[in-house]
Design a protein that fits this description.
homotetramer, Substrate Binding Domain Of Dnak, Chain:A, Domain 2, 0% strand, Four-helix bundle copper-binding protein (chains A, B, C, D)
Chain lengths: 123, 123, 123, 123
């Protein structure tokens, strides 16, 4: 789990710093709304994901799953903008470690459905 | 979407306030580690979820899905502790609105897998 | 205190929404680095300030003081950019209520200095 | 500035982890309301302070000043509870580096007063 915390904290730091300095200073496609939003969104969910793991939350897997999604979207956006290799790498690494954390987590709603209806759900 | 933002902000406020005042002051089962963690975790993911929607994030559905999971776990914990009806209601309402937001969101990874296997798009 | 919490939550919401939609979509002076940074910084400190008050923190006055500073800087920036009256008003109102909360707070360090110079306590 | 960012991130991590695991598991004076609140407040303002510096905010000094206050209060609380040396050290170190960052910052309100009334203000 510590690897995943480190990856989230690293990705948070890189995305926030790059968005607020590199991207804002360069402008153009670097401040295209969808791109800058994804970078700031990514920084925030990485922070939240790290905080869930630091607090040994029993539901951290759900947040890690969402974090992997957002990191993947941000990595794709950074790759298409170009000139942001540090971000691409931090996001891809964070997405990988978060996916692993999420894969061992069974959604509570699925568990509740299973408990109620004896495995009838189709997720 | 505004309904979901309102529900997240309300749930964040109720959980944080109750955890830091009601629960800490009563102690006993109210400060049982799993319970207090869930309340603070819930407050945080609701805040993050609201922030994603306020920023019109294209990936807010992933975070709303995680938020629904955490709210459901927190509602169950509050219901079993008792004496926390305001929290139970705020969490259940937030879980419902977030589930609706999440249900219209197709995970990026699923899209990527689909794209790769069918070769239908080039992202 | 509830008035100040409301003002902080309102200012957080207005600044975050305007920065991530209005400003990013218009570009130009709306995405000038110092301006967009101040709007996002303001949204964050307002959130933190509200969280301190919701948790009945004994040191909320220190954070409210910082929040008043940041809100004032953000209001000035929004006023000079123009076209952002909703933000200017939310920031100025939040700065006022936070200044009131801060004015009744005596910095701990000042108290410690006073304690040391008078030899009154041993911390 | 990087030293101060590192100190804030370290203090955030130590306080959050200790509050949510060590303190909640031990209970007793470790979950006394004022103590646990200060630890969670400290974790949050350290996170906010680090985020202001990562984004090269022009008003980070105001937040660093508040952070130093909260860290000092948290360190005192941890020292009196005992058994929390790692927290005491992280908080004291963070308070020191934040005080240095804050000392070079002139409050905006003081500057505005000075500009308006030619140095007549009494802060």
């Amino acid at each position: 789990m510590q690897d995943c915390i480190d990856a989230c904290q690293r990705c948070h730091e890189v995305c926030l710093r790059m968005a607020m300095t590199h991207c804002l200073e360069l402008g153009g496609r670097h401040t295209e709304p969808e791109h800058l939003r994804l970078m700031l969104n990514c920084a925030e969910i990485c922070q939240t994901s790290a905080n869930f793991m630091l607090s040994q939350s029993s539901v951290h897997g759900a947040v890690c799953g969402a974090c992997a999604e957002v990191c993947t979207a941000c990595a794709d956006s950074c790759a298409s903008v170009g000139d942001m290799d540090e971000c691409v790498q931090a996001c891809r690494h964070c997405a990988e470690t978060c996916s692993e954390m999420a894969s061992s987590y069974q959604p509570r709603m699925a568990r509740r459905d299973a408990g109620t209806s004896a495995g009838a759900h189709s997720h």
